[in-house]
Design goal:
A 5-stranded mixed beta sheet has the order 1-2-3-4-5. It is α+β, with helices and mostly antiparallel strands. Helix 3 links the parallel strand 4 and strand 5. Helix content is 37%, strand content 21%. It has one domain: Gcn5-related N-acetyltransferase (GNAT) (Aminopeptidase), CATH 3.40.630. The longest helix has 18 residues. The structure holds coenzyme A. The site of coenzyme A has 20 residues, from helix 1, strand 4, helix 3 and helix 4.
């Protein structure tokens, strides 16, 4: 049975931290420029605890009964001086455990976030994905995202 998608509660914090550390480690394997889960977990714990008090943030989890199989975080961003929309949505975190990937769980959490964004008057959603992450890029394209900006880095 597919894990059940629901809103996160504070009780989920330890499991979300575990999944966030896996997300960090996933990125380290792409490029050691990223910090590992061990390095990011302290800072992320503080951020996450505050996000639960923020009505402009929506944290969704996929509950497998004995823990979480994934989580998505969506947030409403203030206007940017160079963009026309007064507010935009952002997906800051998206992770599904390896064993549950490719079964539409990510899409379920994404669809729930889209509903919430629409209810809040959001017409555009932005996100960043590593250019060397075909899995992530493939999922976002499947959900309808189009390339918008290219983020560049020069190593000196
Ligand atoms: C991105 C992620 C959250 C998607 O979750 P999911 O539950 O597997 O997503 P879905 O089942 O809804 O969709 C999977 C889609 O990803 C795409 N995909 C998966 N692996 C892919 C690959 N190697 N190359 C290209 N596209 C790929 C496909 O479009 C696939 O759709 P399909 O199964 O119909 O072909 C999950 O793969 C994940 O956690 N990846 C590692 C972390 C990550 O990349 N997070 C996003 C960072 S921005």
């Amino acid at each position: 049975m597919l894990p059940r998608v629901r809103a996160a509660t504070r009780k989920d914090i330890p499991e979300i931290l575990r999944l966030n550390a896996l997300l960090s480690d996933f990125h380290v394997r792409i490029d050691p420029y990223y910090k590992s889960g061990e390095e990011t977990s302290g800072g992320f714990k503080l951020v996450l605890e505050n996000l639960f008090d923020d009505e402009k943030t929506n944290i969704l989890v996929a509950d497998k009964g004995n823990g979480l199989a994934g989580y998505f975080i969506g947030m409403i961003q203030p206007p940017k001086p160079f963009l026309r929309p007064e507010k935009t949505g952002r997906i800051s975190d998206a992770f599904v455990e390896q064993a549950f990937r490719g079964r539409g769980l990510g899409e379920k959490m994404f669809d729930r976030l889209v509903e919430w964004f629409k209810e809040n008057g959001i017409r555009h959603i932005e996100l960043s994905v590593d250019a060397r992450n075909p899995e992530g890029i493939g999922a976002w394209r499947k959900y309808g995202f189009k390339d918008f900006m290219i983020k560049m880095r020069l190593d000196l």
